[in-house]
Amino acid sequence: MTNSDELPRVVSASREMMAGADQIFELIADPTQQPRWDGNDNLDEAPSGQRIRGVGEVFTMMLAKGGVRENHVVEFDEGRRIAWRPAEPGQEPPGHLWRWELEPVDSSRTRVTHTYDWTQLTDEKRFPRARATTADKLQASLDRLAALARAWLREVPQADQPRTGARTSPSDGRL
């Protein structure tokens, strides 16, 4: 398959995480946290104070290879869904989208789906990078995010964690 029209232009990965949707969403909606879970290893840092709260907001991110991206929030449902379209500073987004959807399984487990959609990407010079964004890279982001959520659970005092029945030790894999 060499023709970009033959390639899938929407890739997704999902994973159940052992943390509540609200805790996971905080790691996604705070741009300063994003370099910690980015499976593409593309993000360097973001200025603090940009916690996303709604559609229409724009947050900036410094890239690992230099440069800055303005990310235009186009979908937002607190604790459940967030999506943005990246763009060069001062430019209109060229048409690709990053989306996160969180579905609570119960108070301490969440199904998280990460999607990269480049169906509307019009800038052909970006096609090679878009093609390189595979489900494996999205899964790497999910895995890193799950590890951060688990670390959060270990750091929060037991009294502050949701009560869902008997607590177990981290070593038995049920936290």
Q: Uncertain spans, ≥5 residues at pLDDT below 50? A: 158-175
Radius of gyration: 17 Å
Helix content: 10-25%
Strand content: 25-35%
Task: Please write the string of helix (H) and strand (E) elements.
Answer: EHHEEEEEEHH
Instruction: Describe the strand arrangement of the main beta sheet, using strand numbers.
Output: 1-7-6-5-4-3-2
What is the domain total for the residues? 1
Please state the overall shape, judged from the principal axes of the Cα atoms.
globular
Structural class: alpha+beta
What CATH calls the topology is: Alpha-D-Glucose-1,6-Bisphosphate, Chain A, domain 4
Distance between the termini: 43 Å
List the defining traits of the structure above:
single chain; 175 residues; alpha+beta; Alpha-D-Glucose-1,6-Bisphosphate, Chain A, domain 4; 7 strands; 23% helix; globular; disordered C terminus
Can you offer a commentary on this structure?
This protein is α+β, with helices and mostly antiparallel strands. It has a single domain (10-155), classed as 2-Layer Sandwich (Alpha-D-Glucose-1,6-Bisphosphate, Chain A, domain 4). The protein has four helices and seven strands. The chain has helices at residues 21-29, 34-37, 127-132, 135-155, and strands at 10-17, 43-45, 58-63, 68-77, 81-87, 97-106, 109-117. Strands 1-7-6-5-4-3-2 form a seven-stranded antiparallel beta sheet, with helices on one face. Helix 1 packs across helix 4 (135-155). The longest helix has 21 residues, at 135-155.
